[in-house]
From TrEMBL:
Gene3D superfamilies per the UniProt record, alphabetical: MFS general substrate transporter like domains (1.20.1250.20), Vaccinia Virus protein VP39 (3.40.50.150)
InterPro entries tied to this protein: MFS_trans_sf, SAM-dependent_MTases_sf
Key words of the record: Membrane, Polyamine biosynthesis, Transmembrane, Transmembrane helix
Matches recorded under PANTHER family: THERMOSPERMINE SYNTHASE ACAULIS5 (PTHR43317)
Alphabetical GO biological process terms: polyamine biosynthetic process
Transmembrane feature ranges: 12-38, 50-70, 82-101, 113-134, 155-175, 187-208, 233-253, 259-279, 291-312, 318-337, 349-372, 378-396, 403-423, 429-447, 454-472
Protein's name according to its UniProt entry: Spermidine synthase
Amino acid sequence: MNNSTDVKTDRRFSLILLFALTLFTSASLMFVIQPLFGKILLPLLGGSPAVWNTCMVFYQTILFLGYFYAHVVSTRFSQHKQILLHIAVILVSFLALPLGLPDNVVPPTEGNPAFWLFWILLLAIGLPFFVVSTTGPLIQKWFASVGHHTSDDPYFLYVASNIGSLLALLSYPFLLEPNIGLASQKTLWSVGYGVLCVLIMACAFVLWKSQQNTLAFAVDTTEKQALSVTTRLHWLVLAFVPSSLLLGLTNFISTDIASVPLLWIIPLTLYLLSFVIVFSKWNDKIHPLMVQLQPIVLLPFIAYSFINPAVLPYWLDLGLHLLAFFLAIMVCHGELVKNRPSTQHLTTFYLIMSFAGMLGGMFNSFIAPFIFNAVYEYPLMIVAALLLRPGVKSAFTDGKQALLQAVFPLLLIVVGTVVFFSIEDWSAYFDSLGVALILLVGLTYAFRNQPITLALLSGALIAFTMALHGLMSNTLYQERTFFGVLAVRETTIMDEQGHPEKVRELFHGTTKHGAQRLTANNSRTPLTYYSVPGPMGQLFKAYDGVSQNWQVGVVGLGAGALTCYAKEGQTWTQYEIDPLVVSIASNPQYFTYISQCGKNTTMRIGDARLSLNKEPDAKFDLLVMDAFSSDSVPTHLLTQEALTMYFKKLKPNGLLAFHITNRHLEIKRVLADHAKNLHFDGLLQEFKPKQEMPLVVDTDWVVMAKDSAILEPLRVSDLGSWQKLPLSFDLKPWTDDFTNIVSIWR
């Protein structure tokens, strides 16, 4: 008797292990391919954070299609037909292996490339990713039909799936990326996909042999209780808001810190962790705590982070965003799981979840950039998350209750708007503003148990802080493209004689990408990272005697300040990936560097490596690399292959100048390693002004050449302190196949 019981126990455990392992493998493959293919695609589009967000929309769309397929197959076909159909789909998907981009892929240089990127992803990984995306709901539905004693509630298997997702995401930056090149990663993924297909077929075999096929099919086709439209809509919004928040936070991180998959993974990891927790047995205890903590963290976060992010250290600002995001999605996903249905509606539940996730991604990537000129969808979804707290469903069901909760905040918003626009000079009211913010935060928290009031007051708080930031920054122009948010702002500085002077500044995200003094005497003077006392001013002065007929290439336009170093006999070519940057820099209404100094300048729009590769060899005397995605140099411009190509385009005595100013990454180590391996000579200057000068800032530059003699004018110059590049012995060379951002983190 005991032996028989043990055998049954072992069989039951083996059954759970097989299905859990299949879901674990599927989720692992799904969330390894996301940073993997994001890294493959980054070089084509200049490292823009929108590349990752568009990839996320693609993954969410295919996930929805996979869930839709699983729903239709599991509710319309018998188990035998399901198995035969799914095996056929798996066999067709092998046509897309091994992984890789289609041949001769060239991104468009005009318009928004998001739809082009979507199409390339579909061709490259659409079929295998579709099969992987079907696995979660289909395998759980099959498990519900095999007669296991836990088959009536297979949602616990979703935990195994999300653990696989988490481990895969965390293993990528800390295990796969630092140790394995892209080519090997693609091969390993293809092998893993083959293992997954074997596991799926093993699950299919178990289902085929199950004695409950006919019964299970009858259960699937005869639903005992219909789902209401209200319930479906509630599921939809509870899944939509976290999906939109995920991409909104990702956009913030990749714009203001670094445009690399390592950091993009953090919000996605938290997103998946929330699913692991809410689908576990601890959710009943954790969910009330998350509901209590959400307004405690969120309200101070709104007051500080949205009025002026630069006030806080970047790590603290990032931590606040991540914590507020995690609490918001925990509340939404916790409510989602509380309202999950029985197994007869399992695939419908997952289908609506995936559809909402796709809609959230599409809203952020395809709709918001066209209707907003900044990332307003992010704070909008923060307010929406507060609106979805417990009790909102009953409040909206009872119209009178909803109205009562909305009346007070709406009146406050109207009064506040009138007061706000009636005051012309807010600078005299800064102390009062601080008190008003504190009072508004406290008032908002007092209504934490009334979700409609809480959400509307929080929205008013965000609008108030963002409006104040707009007033203080004096924004003249702001526009959003696929590559980020660009803003032209005007401020006042004190000149050398202590007189006020107007200055125009160009911002990408929160990072300044150029500035110009507006007085006639100073409007041709390069500033900020390109100042005359700084490394670039020193370079042009040191080679003044031989540069009359130079061919100069500059990657990264900014406000166009460098063009004011141009001489009459020189020819300059500017490379810029974002057409809007060219439009702003060329418009005398905003900046006049190009109109005054850039008469012999030609513009090239597109990714720097793709554009430079089309140029004749040995064309340039000087090549300046100044490409930044907000505060980060795109990694594909820092590889050995990239450096080799740059020198191929330089004349034998040509110079390569590399701008490496960065708050978070020691880029000098990468360039020093390349110089050692490729036998180039290089000098580094980490410039700090000797005295305070208007808009002359700290900046770091590396200048490289094939022969040390070419750099002699800089080395012997008394203009600045140029040093040899530091030796680096513990850094694995960065190539197109391998980069490791962790190794150069400050």
